[in-house]
Amino acid sequence: MREAHARLATWGLDGAKLLAGLREYRQVQRDLSKFDHQRRSSRSQDDFVMARPKLVFLDRTGNAGIASGHYFHQDLLVARAIYARRPDIHVDVGSAIYGFVSHVASFRDIRVMDIRPLRSTTDGISFIQQDVMNLGPEYFGYADSVSCLHALEHFGLGRYGDPIDYDGWRSGLQGLTRLLQPGGNLYLGVPTGCIQRVEFNAHRVFRLPYMRDVLTQDFQIESLAFVNDQGDLLEDVDPYGPEAECSFGARYGLSIWMLRLKN
Fold first, then answer.
1. Average pLDDT over the chain, rounded to an integer
2. In a shared domain, residues 157 and 91
């Protein structure tokens, strides 16, 4: 059932939301009738035109928002680290514009690098269109601080118009490394779980020990955080501890690496 639901969701068909919407439809209709009755009885009924209803379901029974999960913890944690370190030039590669980039832009300039175009007139956000898997030499040693959050796992899978490349994530990691000045900081967030796999063309999922061993070839690990399958943040975990060896038992967790490029 989970597999069927996931496949339908990729086509924009969410069965769970449809059933919940059908359950709430009657209540929304009752609310609309009550609201319209109050409008007709109000002395200010002509202040607003009664336009065509746009029925919105599921918000009634949901939470006030989402304060857990990969993006919430990752974006906040890394933005705070950048605020504390105050680098000269920070470049972000492929992270969420509406989340992480806007977090950072609230307190400093940020340069965004992506294979896709971006139109922005927002002060403090500048854009560089560049394929990091094939980074131009003019960007070697360009910044003392680089972030790539929930993006590296997509490189080479074609999802975002990038060229198909089985080892695209390795080329992307090499590009991130080249972007940095010696001693610079890399903030990296990637899906992490017990079973290392490719789910084409969505993403890759890495085993934590595998990613650790790759990263330590060029970087020192300054800290590691992990978001588990329950969406909870585990801060300052031991990258060599027994829980890390089994990727914290996660099927689809997130490891958040704070790294320093070796001189």
1. 93
2. yes
Q: Which two tokens stand for residue 236?
A: 């300052």
Nearest to 133 by CA among 78, 100, 72, 179: 179
**pLDDT band (50, 70, 90) for residue 5:** low
Identify residue 239 by its one-letter amino acid code: P
Provide the number of structural domains found in the chain.
2
List the single range of 46-55, 78-87, 229-238, 252-261 with lowest mean pLDDT: 46-55
pLDDT value of position 45: 92
Whole domain around residue 134: which residue ranges?
70-261
Which domain-ending residue is among 31, 62, 93? 62
* DSSP symbols for the chain: -HHHHHHHHHTT--HHHHHHHHHHHHHHHHHHHHHHHHHHH-TTTTSS---------STTTS-S----SHHHHHHHHHHHHHHHH--S-EEEES--IIIIIHHHHTTS-EEEEESS------TTEEEEE--GGG--GGGTT-EEEEEEES-GGGTTSSTTSPPP-TTHHHHHHHHHHHHEEEEEEEEEEEEE-SS-EEETTTEEEB-HHHHHHHHTTTEEEEEEEEE-TTS-EE-S--TTSHHHHTGGG-SSEEEEEEEEE--
Bridge partners of 261, per DSSP, are 219
Per-residue pLDDT of 172-188, as tens digits, reads 999 999 999 999 999 99
